[in-house]
Structure formats: C-alpha cells, structure tokens
Amino acid sequence: ADSSANVSDLKQKYQKLILMYHPDKQSTDVPAGTVEKCIQKFIEIDQAWKILGNEETKKEYDLQRHEDDLRNMGPPYYYICKENIRLSGRDHHKFIEN
C-alpha cells in the first residue's frame, strides 16, 4: 500500500477487492485450483485490511517499510577528494605514502 494513501481510499479498494475474491462470488465452473487461489487472496486482503484499516497500525506499517527500504539501500556512497582531507602534521606522511 502507498504510504500516502488515506484509510478512506484504502477502504474503497479493500471493498472492491474483497468482493472480487470472496469465495461465495466465485463461479463453480472454473479450473481446478482457481477457487483455492481466490480464497487465499481473500484471506491476504482481509489480513492486510486489519493492518491498513487502522490509522495507528498503518503508521507502524509505513514506518517499518520505510526502515526496511533504508536498510536495503546499502551503505551510502561517499566521494572524497584529497583536497577536502585535512591531516594533522604527524599523519601527513601516511597520506603521502599511500
């Protein structure tokens, strides 16, 4: 879910999806396994709504996603120029040798 989406917008999407995947709305003449997939999707949608349908739990979810995104970015890349490095007098020779 988009972190900028409000609960009202999410509720409309939830209602549309929950009706689409509701087990009672599925046709009986569908290929084998299709009904089971719809039931699983119905359960997933319902579980997501339990988190995203509440302002507090949605904030926690959004914060966790943001933290995960930051963690997965990897270490920041720093570009260091030797002109920007300041060394004390006794460490200066180490920089020149390397």
Automatic annotation (TrEMBL):
Residues 1-65 form the J domain. PROSITE patterns: DNAJ_2. InterPro entries: DnaJ_domain (IPR001623), J_dom_sf (IPR036869). It comes from the Eukaryota. GO terms for molecular function: ATPase activator activity; ferrous iron binding. The keyword Zinc applies. This is J domain-containing protein. It comes from Microcebus murinus.
